[in-house]
Write a structure and sequence with these properties.
Number of domains of chain B: 1
Number of helices of chain A: 6
Number of domains of chain A: 1
Strand content of chain B: under 5%
Helix content of chain A: 10-25%
CATH topology of chain A: Metallo-beta-lactamase, Chain A
Radius of gyration of chain B: 26 Å
Shape of chain B: rod-shaped
Number of strands of chain B: 0
CATH architecture of chain B: Up-down Bundle
Radius of gyration of chain A: 16 Å
Distance between the termini of chain A: 34 Å
CATH topology of chain B: Substrate Binding Domain Of Dnak, Chain:A, Domain 2
Strand order of the largest sheet of chain A: 1-2-3-4-5-6-7
Largest interface: A-B, 30 and 26 residues
Largest sheet of chain A: 7 strands, mixed
CATH superfamily of chain A: Ribonuclease Z/Hydroxyacylglutathione hydrolase-like
Oligomer: heterodimer
Largest sheet of chain B: none
Structural class of chain A: alpha/beta
Order of helices and strands of chain B: HHHH
Distance between the termini of chain B: 44 Å
Bound molecules: fe (ii) ion
């Protein structure tokens, strides 16, 4: 069963990580979902697939009133990211879904009306949440051609979608990266294969290096904290990506 | 990587509706194909009657009637088909809503019944589902009355086939051939009757 862990809290501003599900069927990739709560509003980042909806919903409900959900931030169009959309809308039809303009007409295949979608332009945009100004940061071609990360300048948290993802063995079930060297081995093959563009990768590394980041939270695997964030950026910028075999 | 947990899979109940509409469509297709056969058979019978001349005048008239019957049947079936093909949308809607509300129900069960918004979501889901089911029920009624109408038409076809058999007896040297043709007619009409009976029993939506 999934559980929500509070990874940041300051007054009425919280980040919840619904991470690492040991009870999920083995044939489904393990995903992390994140909830940004500010005051009476909440934003769900990459809500995940249909199969895991019940466990994500109940984990979220345990920590936050689900009727406060104002929107869904979808880093890109993959099924493990957003195929549960129809179910969230079943719970709350007026939810807004933020997604790259590129995928705006593709996502309705998962559910939603025209009014559901808020297209994010290529340079990114600000998403307001209970007075908070969250930034949709471009991460195109990493790995999707229309791809965004979400930066919270107040909490100094960067939600990085598939970037930073690690496919960890079952016994590596900690919430945070504890030993970068050991951890990153499980991220290497994934980044080499999934991340298609070296130029896009360099652009992203430069862009996020300018941000103040305490935590980088990916959609798969463990969370990078403190110095591990920069360690990751350095590692990634040196990695050869877009290769079929390592 | 992780141990599977079977109760994470929420089974949707709705897919039987889609299976039913597929069965209805298959039955309709079977009748359309048979109607086409009757049409050809009637054409052959008309030629046969012409060759038999005076001895098969009555048979010739009946063959013409059977041909008209086959054309009426085809028309009836194509309007039935329009009805069901339009309903695939409603059926899919039902299947989707049922699946979604089953998964949502499981989510609410896991979260505890007191979770805010649960009651509203459930009420909304039920309202949407019943609207879709209402559409299907209305279609069901139309479909049933169309099937009944077709059954009456086929009764008439049965009478024509029986009469053709009687006429065949007066066919002189052509009698065995005419008898064979009229027996074939009777058989395919019986086949259509069976299909219509099955069709009449199918319901697109359970009461
Ligand atoms: Fe992805
Ligand atoms: Fe992913």
């Amino acid at each position: 069963m999934k559980q929500a862990h509070c990874i940041f809290e300051e007054d009425d501003h919280r980040w919840l990580a619904i991470a690492r599900d040991p009870s999920k069927p083995g044939h489904i990739i393990d995903t992390n979902e994140y909830v940004v709560v500010k005051g009476k509003e909440a934003l769900l980042c990459d809500p995940g697939g249909i199969e895991i909806f019940p466990s994500v919903f109940s984990a979220l409900s345990a920590e936050c009133d689900p009727t406060r959900l104002a929107g869904i931030f979808s880093s890109h169009q993959d099924p493990d990211i957003i195929s549960s959309l129809a179910l969230w809308l079943e719970f709350k039809p007026e939810l807004k879904c933020y997604i790259s303009w590129l995928w705006q007409s593709f996502l309705p295949h998962f559910g939603g009306e025209e009014s559901t979608f808020v297209p994010i332009p290529d340079p990114g945009m600000t998403i307001s949440l209970g007075g908070l100004e969250l930034q949709a940061i471009p991460a195109h071609y990493l790995h999707s051609s229309g791809n965004f990360h979400l930066y919270d300048p107040k909490a100094k948290i960067l939600f990085s979608g598939d970037v930073g993802a690690a496919l960890l063995p079952a016994d590596h079930n900690g919430l945070y990266v504890e030993d970068f060297g050991r951890h990153i081995r499980h991220a290497e093959a994934f980044h080499k294969r999934w991340m298609g563009s070296d130029k896009a990768k360099r652009d992203w590394c430069e862009r996020v290096s300018r941000l103040e980041i305490d935590m980088m939270v990916p959609q798969h695997g463990a969370i990078y904290r403190g110095a591990d964030v920069q360690r990751f950026i350095n590692w990634f910028s040196a990695l050869e990506v877009g290769v079929l075999r390592s | 990587m992780n141990a599977p947990q079977p109760n994470l899979h929420v089974k949707a109940r709705g897919s039987s509706e889609l299976a039913r509409i597929v069965r209805v469509n298959e039955e309709i297709k079977a009748i359309v194909a048979t109607a086409f056969r009757i049409n050809l058979m009637a054409l052959n019978a008309i030629f046969l009657a012409k060759r038999a001349g005076n001895a098969a005048l009555g048979f010739g008239v009946l063959s013409n009637e059977l041909r008209r019957f086959a054309q009426d049947l085809t028309r009836n079936m194509s309007s039935l088909r329009d009805m069901t093909s339009g309903s695939v949308g409603s059926v899919t809607g039902v299947v989707q809503y049922q699946r979604n509300s089953a998964i949502l129900a499981e989510a609410i069960r896991l979260s505890g019944e007191g979770v805010p918004g649960a009651r509203e979501a459930r009420r909304r889901g039920a309202a949407r589902l019943s609207a879709q089911q209402g559409k299907l029920r209305a279609l069901d009624i139309r479909l049933r009355s169309a099937v009944e109408e077709t059954q009456q038409l086929v009764e008439l076809g049965g009478v024509l086939a029986r009469s053709a058999k009687i006429e065949a007896a007066y066919g002189g040297t052509f009698s065995p051939a005419l008898m064979q043709v009229s027996t074939d007619f009777a058989e395919v009409i019986a086949q259509i009757k069976r299909s219509l009976e099955i069709l009449g029993k199918e319901r697109l939506v359970k009461d």
